[in-house]
C-alpha cells in the first residue's frame, strides 16, 4: 500500500457466532512497539493473528507467543 495523510487507525477483528467483533485504535505511531502493545493487551497469546508482512509484526510468533500468519 501507500502512505496516507491523516490519522492512523489500527484494527482487530475477532470472529464470533454472529459475525465479527471489531475494535479500532487511533495510533500516533505505526511502529512495532505501539502495535504489539495493542495486540498484547487485547489478544490472548496463542491466538492466530493474520496480518500483512509488514516488519512491525515480525516476531509475533517467536517473541510473543502468537500463531502469526500472513
UniProtKB/TrEMBL annotation:
Organism: Didymodactylos carnosus
Domain ISXO2-like transposase: 7-70
N-terminal signal peptide: none
InterPro entries: IS1016-like_transposase (IPR053164), Tnp_ISXO2-like (IPR024445)
Protein name: ISXO2-like transposase domain-containing protein
Amino acid at each position: 500500500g501507500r502512505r496516507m495523510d491523516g490519522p492512523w487507525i489500527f484494527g482487530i477483528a475477532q470472529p464470533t457466532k454472529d459475525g465479527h467483533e471489531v475494535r479500532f485504535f487511533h495510533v500516533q505511531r505505526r511502529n512495532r512497539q505501539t502495535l504489539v502493545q495493542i495486540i498484547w493487551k487485547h489478544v490472548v497469546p496463542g491466538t492466530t493473528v493474520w496480518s500483512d508482512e509488514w516488519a512491525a509484526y515480525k516476531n509475533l510468533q517467536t517473541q510473543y507467543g502468537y500463531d502469526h500468519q500472513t
